[in-house]
Amino acid sequence: MPNFTSSKQSASRPSAGPAQLDEKHLAGMIAKLHDPLVASIFLEVLNQYPELETRYLGSYLKAIETVERTQSRNAKARAIGQACKTLRVFAAKASLWVYRSLTFCVARLREHMKQSKRVRSKAKPAANDNVIYLPDASKATGTDY
């Protein structure tokens, strides 16, 4: 069984004319002028029809303000992004420089320690027959537990 009540209800409503629909749509756009996309579309329409600019001058100015504020915000965000990128590259280069410097210092310290061990091992202690001298006391002798 078909439902005819919805078609009867829609037929009983007076249909809005195209001018009324345009007015409703324009009122909806004006209410959303805080959105940059809607503001840019609104400006394009008003630029195509200059007679509407004078009719909706307040809304036109609000749309211009919204678009310019968005462009300003985007420019600031882009500048901050570029500054962060530069800072990140600088930090990476500085970290690499510190790593290489520390690696160089550690290598020189190891060379110096090897040379000082050689010098110590070459130095002969005073003759004492009761003492056994090990070449490196830090190495295990196999008797340590």
Automatic annotation (TrEMBL):
It comes from the Bacteria. This is Uncharacterized protein. It comes from Comamonas aquatica. The lineage of its organism: Bacteria, Pseudomonadati, Pseudomonadota, Betaproteobacteria, Burkholderiales.
